[in-house]
Model the fold of this input.
Amino acid sequence: MREQLRANPANAPVLVADHGQLVVFPGVNHVLKVASTEQAGNFATYANPDLPLAGGVVEAITVFIKN
Done:
């Protein structure tokens, strides 16, 4: 099993450059749901449509699209 790759927070300003805004969602996995740090708990979020997106995700995406 591969480990999930993560961006180094020190590089965040370069990643967003002049075209974006950095938004950090602590405890959120790459399917944008709150997830356990243990592998089984994290994987359980992938196929569970009953789990909502993490708080603030929809709002952040909406702001991004509008801008």
User: Anything to note?
Assistant: The mean pLDDT is 84. The chain has one domain: 9-66. The CA atoms of residues 33 and 48 lie 10 Å apart. The chain has three helices and no strands.
